[in-house]
Inverse folding.
């Protein structure tokens, strides 16, 4: 079976589209399965992809990125630019205008007050917004009229499309969330589990870490859409079960993120019930290194905080040794085949931002040993574990429960053992690991481990906000309800200066150079992030489901309003 490309899917969708939408809800029920179950429907309180994507069916941004990375208006009447007067000539402001007549799913009008409120909600100093980097350098959001706002920046912003663009930065309703600001945000369960939205569907039931039931939004702006009257969004299980449910049994219409070996996907697809689709973007499977001490011997509230540097992972050469001990080519062969490429980069695409860094692609066990020796880490008692000043090189390595990730863990544990690093493996239910519960000890944000593995990417084709997430002070911590994007607790004033410089740079070649420098600072120069695999996104849909266009630059469900049943 040849995996179809996103382009082929788009062509097929267009071929069926003209007769697809006779009447809203006429195609009955849609079933979607994500093996990582959503735990919240508010992307400002969770950076987990499964939370961002499920909520994208309900709440929407002003604009999105299409399957080619181009900006397209959604709630906005048009994408503001300098040419159309929406972006000021000095690049210090951007003015957004809503389409007229938009309604929330409760029937009330969408206004500029909702846009301003969304910014105030995310930028609240006590809120710990998971998407705070989207609002970097925003000084104010001013209401011009009922349909228009102007976002002002504290400096010229050649890329002013952070706020309100893409699935990670939707608009939320002021009336529903206005009593949920700051530290109160996680307490607003009804709003966080059932947001009132503008999307094609609205929530009828949400069982956290399990299932979402939805129905067509009666106030959706296109009266002929969505084609489906109801949706079941099932979460949990594993990638194998999700793949089978679409490709073999036909129980579900769409399965996300089939993180499975290629031969497994091909075997499932041979049943002829569904089709696997794939496309490369900026998704990187990587190991994040904790620069702070996660030890349970520290008081709660002090573990994995900047007050306590990590006893040995603060050493750059130790981190480099862990990186070069890994055989990335074997990881690709075992885990992804043609849907993966070994990488040393946090940002593998677009090409403008992709560094030519290839140093890590050659495994070097002896070089890793030499690095540790030079730093004074030796095995003095013959137990196979290096130590220095009484501190042993023992790491807790965590990730989500998934067959490919557990295979990666097992291989990497062996390689690290070869260089004298003892490794304990932990795998956690993805719904919890990628959730945003500030009370859970097992979230990737809280990072109660020495290293952890996952993958994510960024909206659109410009990595400014993605790279800007590593600014000093933006790490998850108790005062931010353990929300934040700087997972490693990294802080370098030189890196912060590059964030600011990138934000002020308009020339594309110079933006590319700065982006590559920032990538290299996080990877090659410091190994704070250890990239492993540039992953092609692989999902599957039933052969009876039309309109699917796989998008690696935004939410995978970006055009769910266009899906329909092929008859």
């Amino acid at each position: 079976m040849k995996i179809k490309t996103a382009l082929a899917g788009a062509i097929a969708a267009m071929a069926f589209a003209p007769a697809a939408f006779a009447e809203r809800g006429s195609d009955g029920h849609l079933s979607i399965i994500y093996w990582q179950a959503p735990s919240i429907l508010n992307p400002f309180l969770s950076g987990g992809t499964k939370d961002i994507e499920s909520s994208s069916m309900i709440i929407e941004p002003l604009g999105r990125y299409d399957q080619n990375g181009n900006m397209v208006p959604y709630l906005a009447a048009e994408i503001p630019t300098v040419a159309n007067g929406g972006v000021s000539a000095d690049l210090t402001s951007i003015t957004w205008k809503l389409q007229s007549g938009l309604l929330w799913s409760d029937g009330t009008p969408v206004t500029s007050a909702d846009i301003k409120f969304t910014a105030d909600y995310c930028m609240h100093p006590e809120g710990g917004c998971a998407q705070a980097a989207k609002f970097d350098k925003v000084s104010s959001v001013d209401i011009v009229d009922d349909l228009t706002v102007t976002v002002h920046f504290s400096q010229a912003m050649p890329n002013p499309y952070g706020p309100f663009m893409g699935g990670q930065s939707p608009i939320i309703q002021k009336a529903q969330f206005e009593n949920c600001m700051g530290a109160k945000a996680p307490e607003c369960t009804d709003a966080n589990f059932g947001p009132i939205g503008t999307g094609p569907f609205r929530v009828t039931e949400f069982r956290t870490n399990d299932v979402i039931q939805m129905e067509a939004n009666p106030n959706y702006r296109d009266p002929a859409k969505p084609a489906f009257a109801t949706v079941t969004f099932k979460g949990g299980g594993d990638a194998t079960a999700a793949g089978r449910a679409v490709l073999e049994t036909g129980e579900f219409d769409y399965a996300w993120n089939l993180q499975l070996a290629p031969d497994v996907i091909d075997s499932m697809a041979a049943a002829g019930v569904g089709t696997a689709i794939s496309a490369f973007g900026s998704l990187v499977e990587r190991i994040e290194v904790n620069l702070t001490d996660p030890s349970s011997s520290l008081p709660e509230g002090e573990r994995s905080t900047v007050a306590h540097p990590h006893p040995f992972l603060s050493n750059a050469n130790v981190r480099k040794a862990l990186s070069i001990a890994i055989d990335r080519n074997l990881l690709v062969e075992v885990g992804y085949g043609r849907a993966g490429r070994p990488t040393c980069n946090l940002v593998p695409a677009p090409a403008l931002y992709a560094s030519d860094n290839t140093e890590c692609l050659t495994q070097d066990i002896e070089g890793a040993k030499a690095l540790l020796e030079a730093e004074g880490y030796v095995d003095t008692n013959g137990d196979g574990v290096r130590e220095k000043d009484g501190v042993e090189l023992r790491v807790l390595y965590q990730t989500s429960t998934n067959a490919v990730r557990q295979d990666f863990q097992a291989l990497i544990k062996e390689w690290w053992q070869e260089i004298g690093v003892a490794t304990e493996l932990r795998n956690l239910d993805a719904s919890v690991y990628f959730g945003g519960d500030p009370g859970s000890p097992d979230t990737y944000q809280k990072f109660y481990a020495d290293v952890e593995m996952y993958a994510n990417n960024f909206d659109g084709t410009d990595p400014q906000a993605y790279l800007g997430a590593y600014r000093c002070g933006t790490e998850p911590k108790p005062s931010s309800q353990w929300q934040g994007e700087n997972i490693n607790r990294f802080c370098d004033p030189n890196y912060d200066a590059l964030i600011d410089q990138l934000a002020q740079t308009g020339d594309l070649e110079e933006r590319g150079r700065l982006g590559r420098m920032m990538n290299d600072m996080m990877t090659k120069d410091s190994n704070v992030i250890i990239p492993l695999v540039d992953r092609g996104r692989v999902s599957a849909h039933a052969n009876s489901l039309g309109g699917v266009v796989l998008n690696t630059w935004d939410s995978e469900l970006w055009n769910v309003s266009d899906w329909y049943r092929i008859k």
Remarks:
- DSSP finds 15 helices and 21 strands in the chain.
- The CA atoms of residues 43 and 116 lie 17 Å apart.
- Residues 1-21 have pLDDT under 50 and may be disordered.
